[in-house]
UniProtKB/TrEMBL annotation:
This is C2 domain containing protein. Its main location: membrane. Keywords: Membrane, Repeat, Transmembrane, Transmembrane helix. It is a single-pass membrane protein. GO terms for biological process: plasma membrane organization. The keyword Transmembrane helix applies. InterPro entries: C2_dom (IPR000008), C2_domain_sf (IPR035892), FerIin_dom (IPR012968), Ferlin (IPR037721). Signal peptide: none annotated. Residues 1-120, 160-276, 512-572 form the C2 domain. GO terms for cellular component: membrane.
Length: 572
């Protein structure tokens, strides 16, 4: 879901701007460029505005305000940046004197969602650690409904300008150099049915980035690369972005997954070698989006674990003799180190037995089937028709007619998939119910479970899970289906139910559980009688302080309702 943001940038003045020779003088024609950058690829938001140009000066008073109005998703806002750069405007080209970067979230999280009247040092990666000048500004980031703070004009007079001339820092400002080291050992991405990517790891801090080597087309690769980057403090941004790119796309690199680390945390405490979970920024296939009930705009923030990376990261202050530069180096490991770094995985198993379904909307020629999915692995049941309002999922295996369906994989066993031992890095399990109609197939509803919940011994008095591991064997239960968002106008909430059992765990554990086929029983007719007498204390539903109530009773997809009593809060 996108939200409405207003970004206000007040560029007040600049002092001590360095000329092209690195010294002071009146050889620069400065103007300020404000750039808002959020998202990537098809979701990229890139807007720029400029102040007026000043002629032949290294100190200029602008006092100009620029406004940006943008609609951003949660991921776009969290990754959004604001660049304030002072340029030297030439006759044929413009040269950046220096720039400062701000995270939108950093500004928004400050008091009153603003940075007010502060002097900011301008830095240039190409010119090293020297300060290239100062700009005084105010920044405000407001979400729809936020109220900005009103300031008096004299408040700006209370902030002292930087002392000295060009190379003098702001009062109390000491620029410190750090070396960021990120060691990439191994990266893995979930396939989701897409082509094998040519992976590349990118590390970004502000406008500086460094990339690893490119892997062959595969879903996992051992990089053994060490990425180095100098970082100069203080800075208003703290987040180190780590991205996995697919460089095999004909239109250019596509970002698959990302994660972020705190630079200040790394400087205080290095990240030991371990797995880093990375989450959804890549554009998922339509079939996957449908399986999790998301639109393309929502898929980035709500998809489950998309990738993981085995890595080490640290930030330290280097000795004076160490050369600081952006570089990517191969990291050599001994055989003992490599053996210790190899991911340890186990084989897990998903077992699903289907029984009955009720309340499914059906036409005279419709049939139904169920798909159990675990990441890219899925199993499909036989097509079954409705009989007196009930769908029996009957096995189509030879000699098993009249028995309930037990889903199996292509090896005539249960679904087996090699997964990390950390259940937070597992795929989610989906159970989809489809209707096959003369106009095509459509999904009626679905259920979603995390593998961590499926592996626990759950006390489930409400019957929300189709299993109970404490019983030692799967027990079928009736579960309400979640409606497909695309089909909301055709399917009421909690009107369809599926009876099934589901077990997930290590293959050696699942194999020890009992699994026997059950015969489809003959239907027995039942009748529900409901006598509705009166209601009292109902809440008003219209401007007259009254309501038009009626009672609805539903069972097994069949709904009956009483007559409507008009204009009453205590109907009889």
């Amino acid at each position: 879901m996108r939200e409405h943001y207003q970004i206000r940038v007040h560029i007040i003045e600049a002092r001590g701007l360095r000329g092209p020779d690195g010294n002071k003088g009146f050889s620069v024609n400065p103007r300020t460029k404000i750039r808002i950058l959020a998202g990537e690829g098809a979701t990229l938001v890139d807007q720029s505005q400029y102040t007026r140009k000043a002629d032949a000066t290294n100190s200029v008073f602008w006092d100009e305000v620029r406004m940006f109005t943008v609609d951003l998703s949660r991921d776009q806002f969290n990754s959004g940046k604001m660049e304030v750069a002072v340029e030297d405007v030439g006759m044929f080209s413009n040269t950046t004197i220096g720039s400062a970067f701000f995270d939108l979230t950093t500004v928004y999280d400050r008091g009153y969602h603003e940075i007010f009247g502060e002097w900011v040092a301008l830095m240039s990666q190409a010119k090293g650690a020297a300060v290239q000048g100062f700009v005084r500004l105010s920044l405000t980031v407001l979400r729809e409904g936020d109220t900005p703070k009103l300031h008096q004009a004299h408040e700006l007079d209370d902030v002292d300008p930087p002392e000295g001339q060009l190379s003098m820092p702001m009062p109390g400002l000491e620029v410190e150099a750090y070396q960021l080291v990120v060691r990439i050992i191994r990266a893995e991405v979930n396939p989701f049915g897409i082509a094998k990517p040519k992976m590349q790891v990118r590390v970004r801090f502000g406008s500086t980035e460094v990339k690893s080597r490119i892997s062959p087309p595969r879903y996992e690769h051992n990089f053994y690369d060490e990425l180095r980057m100098p970082i100069y403090m203080p800075t208003l941004t703290d987040r180190i972005r780590i991205d996995i790119l697919d460089t095999g796309n004909i239109l250019g690199p596509v970002q698959l997954a990302d994660a972020s680390l705190s630079f200040l945390s790394l400087a205080a405490d290095p990240m030991e070698t371990g797995w880093l979970n990375m989450y959804g920024v890549r554009k998922l296939a339509p079939s996957v989006l449908g399986s999790i009930g998301r639109t393309e705009d929502e898929s980035a923030s709500d998809t489950a674990y998309c990738a993981r990376m085995l890595m080490f990261a640290t930030a330290y202050q280097p000795p004076p003799e160490e050369h600081l530069s952006v570089m990517s180096l191969p990291k050599l490991f001994s055989k003992t180190e490599l053996d210790a770094l190899q991911p340890r995985e186990q084989v897990y198993m998903l077992r699903c037995d289907l029984y009955d379904a009720i309340g499914l909307p059906a036409g005279p020629f419709d049939s139904f089937y169920v798909v159990a999915a675990l990441g890219p692995h899925e199993q499909k049941s036989s097509y079954c028709s409705m009989n007196e309002g009930v769908v029996h999922f009957e096995s189509s295996s030879p000699g098993k007619e009249g028995y309930y369906e037990q889903l199996e994989d292509i090896k005539l066993e249960d679904i087996k998939v090699s997964m990390p031992t950390d259940t937070d890095q597992h795929f989610d399990v989906f159970i989809h119910v489809y209707a096959s109609t003369p106009m095509g197939d459509r999904r009626l509803g679905y259920l979603r479970y995390s593998t961590a919940a499926l592996m626990r011994s759950v006390d489930d008095p409400d019957g929300m899970f189709p299993f109970d591991r404490s019983l030692g064997a799967p027990t079928p239960r009736w579960i309400y289906l979640l409606p497909d968002p695309v089909e909301l106008e055709h399917l009421e909430m909690a009107s369809c139910m599926l009876q099934f059992s589901l077990v997930f765990g290590l293959d050696k554990e699942v194999n020890t559980m009992g699994r026997k086929r059950r015969k489809i029983p003959k239907l027995r007719p039942y009748t529900l009688y409901a006598n509705i007498f009166a209601a009292t204390g109902l809440s008003p539903a219209n401007d007259n302080g009254l309501a038009d109530p009626y009672v609805r009773v539903s069972l097994a997809g069949v709904t009956e309702r009483t007559q409507t009593i008009e204009a009453s809060l205590n109907p009889m």
